[in-house]
Design goal:
The chain is mainly α. It contains six helices and no strands. It starts with a helix and ends in a 29-residue tail after the last helix.
């Protein structure tokens, strides 16, 4: 019980100034994560797919990025996994307190998504 209160209070401290993500944003992130898993990794990752599908908010999806990186790295090179994850991480900008703030001109050309999501 003590661990839960501590984790909850630490999370609350980091949430200052960040509004809860709208359902549309959560769904956009979820779709991007599932698409990356499907595109980059043809192996069966049913458990991870289930976790992503039923992740209830941006915080849950944020912490599933590490599992996604591991899964894609198993199937592809780590560099491909990191590239895919960089594009997904950009979707969290403004919706998760730990998400880095990217400027479009600060990213190397291979990290700027063709869809222009960082605008």
């Amino acid at each position: 019980m003590m661990n839960m209160r501590l984790r909850t209070s630490l999370w609350a401290m980091t949430e200052r100034g960040v509004d809860p993500a709208p359902v549309v944003v959560v769904e956009r992130i979820r779709v991007a994560m599932l698409a990356a898993l499907d595109h980059d990794c043809h192996a069966d990752h049913a458990r991870l797919t289930q976790k992503i599908t039923f992740g209830r908010d941006v915080g849950v999806l944020w912490y599933l990025r590490a599992d996604l990186l591991d899964a894609i790295s198993e199937c592809r090179h780590e560099s491909m996994a990191r590239r895919a994850l960089a594009n997904i991480t950009a979707l969290f900008q403004g919706h998760h307190p730990i998400a880095p703030t990217f400027r479009r001109d600060s990213l190397p050309p291979e990290r700027v998504p063709a869809s222009g999501l960082l605008q």
